[in-house]
Amino acid sequence: MNALFVPGWGAHAGVYRGAVPGGFDVLEPPSFGATRGSLAACRAWLTRECRARSGPLVLAGHSFGAALSVLAALDDQVDVARLVLVNPAGLPLAKPVPLILWDFLRRLSGGWFPPGEGARSIRGVLSHPLFARRLGVDVRRLDLSAELAQVRERRIPCLVVAASTDTLTPPALCRRAADLCGGRARAG
C-alpha cells in the first residue's frame, strides 16, 4: 500500500523526513510561484500525485497538507484507504497573523527545524511573497466542514493527531475536525 505525507504551508519535505514514520513518501510540494498561491492549483498538484500511484493510499499531512489530503481523498479517481491528519488546517483559524509569525520565528530560533530547512522555507516565502500571502489568507479562512462530513459519509477511516504544542491548530480544533469526519482523535 502506498503511503504519502503532505507537508504544511511553506514547508518542504526535508522538514518532515526525519519525523515521519518509515514507509511514507514525503512529498515535495510545489513552490508558491508554481501554484501562484492558488489553493486550486495545490489541490490539483496533490490529486495528480495520488493518481500517479496505484492501489489504495494512506494519505497523511500536517496542517495545510492535512487539508489538501482531505480534498484529494474526495476525488473520485483517488483511492484512499485511510487518512491521517496531523494538526489539520481546514477549519477557520483564529490566531492573528503576527502571532503566527512570532511562533514560527521562536521555533526557528529554538532549533525545531532540521538545519537549513527553516531558512529554505523563508526563502520560498520571500521569493514569492504575494503568492505566499494569497495562499496563507486562503488557508487561514478555509472551512472544510462539508468536506470532512463527506469523509464520514464515504466511510474513509481517519485519525486526527493533535500535538499539544501546536498553537495554530490546537487540540480543540483537532477534536472538532475528528468529530466532523467521524474519525478518532489522538493527542500527542
Strand content: 15-25%
For the largest beta sheet, what order do the strands appear in spatially?
A: 2-1-3-4-5-6
Order of helices and strands: EHEHHEHEHHHHEHE
Tally of helical segments: 9
Low-confidence stretches: none
Main beta sheet strand tally, sense and closure: 6 strands, parallel
The coarse overall form would be globular
What features would you describe in this structure?
The chain is an alpha/beta fold. The chain contains nine helices and six strands; from the N terminus they run βαβααβαβααααβαβ. It has helices at 13-16, 32-35, 39-51, 64-73, 97-109, 117-127, 129-141, 145-153, 171-181; strands spanning 2-6, 25-26, 57-62, 80-86, 158-162, 184-187. A six-stranded parallel β-sheet has the order 2-1-3-4-5-6. Strand 5 (158-162), helix 9 and strand 6 (184-187) form a beta-alpha-beta unit. The chain is globular. The model has no long low-confidence stretch (mean pLDDT 92).
Quick overview of this protein structure:
This protein is α/β, with parallel strands linked by helices. It is built from 9 helices and 6 strands; from the N terminus they run E-H-E-H-H-E-H-E-H-H-H-H-E-H-E. A 6-stranded parallel beta sheet has the order 2-1-3-4-5-6.
